[in-house]
Input
Amino acid sequence: MRSAFLVLAWGAVSKAFSASSTCDDADASSLLQARKVVRVQRMQTTDANDLLTSLRDVANSFTTDSAVTMTPADVNAAIGTASTALQTMLPLFEQQHVLAQQEIGHALAAVQACHDEHGGEVSARLEQAVTRAGVAKDDCDEGLDNAVEAEHEACAGQGENPNCLCDEARTAITDQTALCVAVTETYEAVYCELQVSCTSCQQCHAEEIEVYGALRADIEAAMTSRQEEYRTFIQVDCLMNLITTAMLSGSPIDHASLVACDDVSVNHLAINFPVPPSAPTGCPAPQSGDPRCPGSPVQDLQTSDFTYSSAHAGKYLAGHAGGDSTIRPMQSAAARCDELGYACAGITCRSETTCTVRAGNDLRQSPSGEFSFVKGSPVAPVAHAQAQAQAQAEWTLIAHHVLAGGLFASATKNTFVENAEDPAASTYMIAGQVTPSDYLVDGKYRLRLEYSDLQDAHQPCNDGPALSGSVTLEWLQSSWVTAETVTGFEAISPSDLSTSAGGLGCQFAGLARSSHAGAVLDGSHQHDYWFGTVGAVSTWSGGIPAWKGGVAQSMSLYVRR
Output
C-alpha cells in the first residue's frame, strides 16, 4: 500500500509540475478570457480557502504522532486539485497585477494629457500672444487718436471744400480705423483662444481626475483581494512541497515547517499609484471691456423701466423698432428700447457691444449665432404710464437723429426744419417751426440733449472717464437754439457739463446756429470745433460730434414747457 501510494501521488505531482505555461505571453484578449475561466472554476470547485484547508489536512496527516489517516485516493485528489489551481492562478495573479499597473498608468497619462494639450507651454504661448496683441491694439488706438487730432487741426475752418491737407488727414483716419479693426479682431481671436484653452484644461483635468480617482479605488480594492488570494495559493504551494518531500523521503513533516508556510510576502503585487498633476490655476474672470468669446455666458439685462427675459441663445427678433437700426452696446440698446415704449419688443445682439432694437415679438432661429432679450412689462406699470404722460407734457422733442438712417440736408442749416410731420424719422427737426416764446420760463429755455452709443474720438477733450453708452445734458439759456450766439447759459447737469481740459473748442456752452458746414446747431460756437452737434450734415470719426470730444450714433434734443 505504501508503495502504491507513493507511485500514485508522485504521478499526480509530476504531471502537474511538468506542464508548461504560456500565460506570460498572453495578450489582453487572452487575459480577459482567463478571467472568465477563473470565475467559472471558482464557482465550481476552487475556493482558495477550502483548498488551503484540504492541503493542511493532508499535511497534518504526515506529522509525527498524527492521529489523522488518509487514503491514497484522498491524498491524490487533494494534490491534483491544488496542482491544477496553482498552474492556473499563480501566472494569472502576475498578469492581473501588470494589467492593473498599466490601467493606472493610462489614467494618469490622460490627466497629464490635459495639461500638455491645454496648459503648460501652450498656455504660456497664448498668454504671450495675448499680451503682444493687446499692446498692438493699444498702439493702434493711440495712433487713431493722433490721426483724429491731426484731422481737427488740418480741417479747422475748411467748411465744405477742404484743402489737400484736410483730405489727407481724413484718409489717414479711414486707413487707421481699418487697421485698428483688423488689429482688434486679432486681439479678440487670440484672447478667446486663451480663454478656451484655460477652460478646456480646467474641465479636462476635472473629468480625468475623477476617472483616475474612481479607477484607483477599484484597483486598490482588487489589489487587496488579489494579495490575499495570492497569499493563500502560495501557502497551498508550500504545503504541497512539504507533502511531496515527506512522501518521497518517508519522513514526517515537522511543525515548524508548517508554520513557515504562513510567511508569505505580497510586496511585489503592490500597485504603484503616482501622484497626479495638480489642478490648474483658475481662469481669470472676465472684466468689463474684455472681448466676449463664443459660448461665454451673457450677462443679465436690466433697466429701471422694463423687465427683460434671460438671453435667448441662437434667436433673433425681426424688424428694427421705430426704423432705428443703430448698433449699440447691450445696455444702451435696452435703454433705447425703453424709450420707444411698446413699439420695441426687445433687442437682438451679435455680441454685448453690437445690439439693435427690434419690433418683432416672435423669436426666430438665427443662422449667425445671435442672441435676444424680449422686453416684458413695465417695472411699475402705473408709475411708468404716469411718467410717460408727464414727460410728454413737460418736454417737447424738437430734434432727433439716428445716424444709420442718413444725414440732415444742408438746407436745414437755414430752415431748421426737417421731416416736421414725422417725429419717428431718422432725421427730424422743428426748431425753426415752433414758437420759442411758448417755452420761455423766467426768461430762459430749459433744454435737454441726449446722445446714445457714445465713444471717445478726441481724447484731449475728455478729462473724465472713457465715454460709453449714453449721456444726457441739461442746461438753461436765454437765447433760442437757432440764434447766432448763446446768451444766459447756465449748466444744470452733469456737474462737468461745461468744463473740459481741452479748452474752448471742447467745452459745451449751450446751443446755437453752427458755423461749421457739418452741423445745423452745435455747442462749440466759440470755436471752429463742432462738438455738441444737433443735426449732423456730415459725420466726423464715424459719428455725430458729441460731448467732451466723443462721437455718438443717435441724438435727441428736447425743450421743456
Summary: Residues 164-249 form the longest helix (86 residues).
